[in-house]
Design a protein that fits this description.
single chain; 65 residues; mainly alpha; 89% helix; flat
Length: 65
């Protein structure tokens, strides 16, 4: 169980690191866009991302990952 958690955190860090390494200017633009959104919209985006993540984890577990 701990191994799966470490794997998940590692994969997130890899993807996050790739974004910052390959397109730092795009990250800055996205941060500016996020700053201009109301708090409730940002919260909805976060909740949607979490729900999609749960769906992906459920799908992966269903196919035997």
């Amino acid at each position: 169980m701990i191994g799966v958690g470490l794997l998940a955190i590692g994969l997130v860090l890899i993807v996050e690191g790739m974004v910052y390494a390959l397109a730092p200017a795009v990250v800055e633009e996205l941060l500016e866009i996020l700053r201009s959104l109301p708090v409730e919209t940002r919260r909805l985006i976060g909740l949607s991302a979490m729900a999609f993540g749960v769906l992906l984890v459920w799908a992966a577990k269903s196919v035997g990952a």
